[in-house]
Design brief:
Structural class of chain A: mainly alpha
Number of strands of chain B: 0
Oligomer: heterotrimer
Chains: A mainly alpha (226), B mainly alpha (228), C alpha/beta (232)
Number of helices of chain B: 6
Shape of chain B: globular
Largest interface: A-B, 33 and 27 residues
Largest sheet of chain B: none
Number of domains of chain A: 1
Order of helices and strands of chain B: HHHHHH
Largest sheet of chain A: none
């Protein structure tokens, strides 16, 4: 499908750009590691209670480190007025958005997959059992964050205080996805499969993703046109 | 004509509220379990309804703005969000006062209080975004998109928090007082106060909306004057 | 059917009109020089023509369609103030990217061809961040012309170009005109623009004060039009 191909062209361009400089990626990873370190002072890594909040801790790390990547999303187009050329090209604005959101998903998941073993080591948490479901939760929840983050990156691209506004706008909106991710991650890190009541959270994630993806695809053109 | 309606609404709302206050504070008896503080409930619950109604109206106005591009919708959306935020704050404060009296603590992660706090942050973000964009058309367009996202978010968040709090019992207490055995006089007062508050809210929205429109006109005139 | 037509365009920034009742049309082989003081609305008009912004009233048609139509945008080449190429990608990567976005059948081949035509073939694998200013501008030109657009919209293309870039630009624009393309360019560089132009338009505070063929007086004395409308 042409739409998908156009989105993938944009995604590939974003990823190639980012991998050349690795600015946002390195900053995000460094930030994630620093936060993990700081949390080890805030919470006793060996205590049983910490296990109970392991999912929460992990997703806080991901949420904070993620904004560094999300911010770059549309901001990278400002340098030489590239955004204008992209919007003027025949690809629909929704394809531009989807491509960027996909690139953000890849970058965010990459940071998460690097942080996970570090987290496992620092907090003595075994993340390898149930890895596939864990990966599933990572991707589902991160997609929700990527959609909101990319959309708001488009909304705030021309603002002076962009770096401040983006987290302020994004964090409250992604709370349902974060809650679901935290709950599911805690369960999976404790070595248990997703069962019973917890399927509710999976359904929430899916609904969150579907609703906001549809909303973003519908509204992004309005945001990008003058 | 419009002004007459506005004055009428405000007067009616104010009078009704005053009468309600009298009834609430003096005429109704104390509630069995909670004592006198339960009276705050008559403002707390309607505040929620009103703020939700305001945010819903703002969402609809934002959608209409994106379709029709008429600045009146944008002014309405802004006014409705501001009034909604005010009533969210009322809900939060009344909830906190109630919690302090009943449980001895200022805050609890009760579902509705948590939701209210998140909603407050979401719409404060909306107000921040508006402040950050100088040009009127871009401001209207972008904040309209944000408003639609915001309302979707608060609906989803409400459900999610409900589930979260039921899964994590602890300070899970809700305002479903007694559940079913509510005194008819109290129930009637609840609705009456809600309608009175809605009237006041609607009046505030209209006043604020007019103020926003005038501000835009003055701004434009000022810029035109500079250009000359 | 006119290649490009503007009908009763109005555009507001806030409550201030940036463009008022702008109407004109041009066909193939026309090069329209868009003149006007800063703030007259040239960039705004070009944005509307390119479909980057929407008019408050009126409409733009490109080859009979709205500029938001994908089919119209595929025939449109846009060169704004910025060069619109990525610093961290190489010349060939940039052009191949835009070739793909414009749906070209052989994006890499077109990219190579245009790199040659703009004299950048020897640096095709170098990153744009290493280019000189003139090279960047030539690459921007290549990007705008890559898909052989029928209509070219250029916002002050001669500004701050070095001599080589000016020569390349003039050559490419002449070729395009000879091939029957339509060009609309805003400019302050009156001499270079008027040499190419077949038609001239003047925007004064958002209104189209003058629209017509280029006359001998304009060519001989570029400031003539401005003075005639009290804009000198």
């Amino acid at each position: 499908m042409r739409f998908l191909r156009q989105s993938l062209t944009v995604a590939a361009k974003d990823l190639r750009s980012e991998l050349r400089s690795k600015e946002a990626l390195n900053a995000s990873l460094a930030f994630a590691l620093v936060i993990l370190l700081l949390f080890s002072f805030a919470f006793d890594p060996t205590a049983e209670t910490t296990r109970e909040i392991s999912g929460g801790l992990l997703w806080l790390v991901f949420a904070f480190a993620g904004t560094l990547i999300l911010n770059r999303s549309f901001a990278r187009e400002l340098a030489n007025d590239c955004l204008e050329a992209l919007v003027a090209s025949p690809i629909p604005a929704s394809a531009l958005f989807l491509g960027k959101a996909l690139a953000n998903l890849v970058l965010l998941v990459a940071v998460e997959l690097v942080s996970l073993p570090v987290f496992g080591v620092f907090y003595n948490v075994r993340w390898t059992p149930h890895f596939l479901p864990l990966l599933g939760v990572l991707v589902l929840a991160t997609w929700g964050v990527a959609v909101i983050g990319t959309m708001f990156s488009a909304l705030t691209v021309n603002l002076r205080l962009r770096e401040l506004m983006l987290p302020v706008l994004v964090y409250p909106m992604i709370i349902p996805a974060l809650m679901a991710a935290m709950q599911l991650t805690t369960v999976l890190l404790a070595g248990e499969p997703v069962a019973g009541d917890n399927w509710l959270w999976v359904r929430l994630l899916v609904a969150f993703d579907l609703i906001f993806t549809a909303l973003a695809l519908a509204l992004v053109e309005t945001v990008l046109l003058g | 004509m419009r002004r007459m309606i506005l004055y009428g609404m405000t007067a009616l709302g104010a009078l009704w509220l005053t009468r309600n206050l009298y009834v609430i504070l003096l005429a109704l008896p104390d509630e069995v379990a909670q004592g006198a503080i339960y009276r705050i409930f008559f403002f707390h619950l309607p505040a929620w309804f009103t703020c939700f109604a305001a945010f819903f109206a703002a969402g609809v106005a934002s959608l209409l703005y994106l379709i029709r591009k008429s600045p009146g919708y944008d002014a309405f959306a802004l006014a409705a969000v501001e009034v909604g935020v005010a009533f969210t704050a009322i809900g939060l404060v009344t909830g906190m006062v109630w919690a302090r009296i009943i449980w001895g603590i200022w805050w609890t992660w009760d579902p509705r209080l948590t939701w209210a706090f998140i909603t407050l942050l979401v719409y404060l973000g909306y107000l921040m975004l508006r402040r950050a964009i100088d040009e009127a058309a871009a401001r209207a367009k972008n904040s309209a998109v944000l408003c639609i996202f915001a309302f979707t978010s608060v609906v989803i968040t409400y459900k999610a928090i409900d589930w979260w709090r039921t899964q994590h019992p602890g300070a899970v207490l809700s305002f479903r007082t007694g559940g079913g055995t509510i005194d008819p006089a109290m129930e009637s007062m609840l609705f009456q106060n809600w309608f009175a508050l809605l009237l006041v809210a609607a009046a505030l929205v209209l006043i604020r909306m007019r103020q926003e429109q005038i501000e835009r006109e003055v701004d434009a005139l000022r810029r035109r004057a500079h250009a000359l | 059917m006119a290649t490009l037509a503007a009908e009763n365009l109005w555009k507001y920034y806030g409550d201030l009109p940036a463009l008022r009742e702008v109407s004109f049309s041009v066909s193939g082989g026309v090069c329209l020089a868009l003149l006007g003081r800063n703030g007259a609305g040239k960039t705004t008009l070009l944005k509307l023509l390119a479909g980057l912004a929407q008019p408050a009233k009126g409409r733009v048609t490109i080859l009979g369609r709205s500029p938001r139509d994908a089919a119209a945008r595929a025939r449109l080449g846009v060169l704004g103030h910025g060069i619109a190429v990525y610093d961290e990608l190489s010349a060939i990567e940039n052009l191949t990217l835009f070739g793909r976005l414009y749906g070209l059948a052989a994006p890499r081949r077109a990219a190579l061809e245009w790199l040659e035509r703009t004299g950048l073939g020897h640096v095709r694998d170098s990153l744009v961040r290493e280019f000189s200013r003139g090279m960047r501008q030539r690459l921007a030109l290549a990007r705008a012309l890559l898909h052989n657009p029928d209509v070219l919209l250029l916002d002050e293309p001669f500004t701050a170009l070095d001599d080589r870039a000016i020569a390349v630009l003039q050559l490419l624009l002449r070729d395009a005109l000879a091939a029957g393309r339509t060009i609309v360019m805003s400019t302050h560089q009156l001499r270079e623009a008027l040499e190419l132009a077949t038609h001239v338009a003047l925007l004064v505070r958002g209104r189209l004060a003058h629209f017509g063929e280029r006359s001998a007086e304009m060519l001989a004395d570029p400031g003539w039009l401005y003075r005639r409308y009290g804009e000198a």
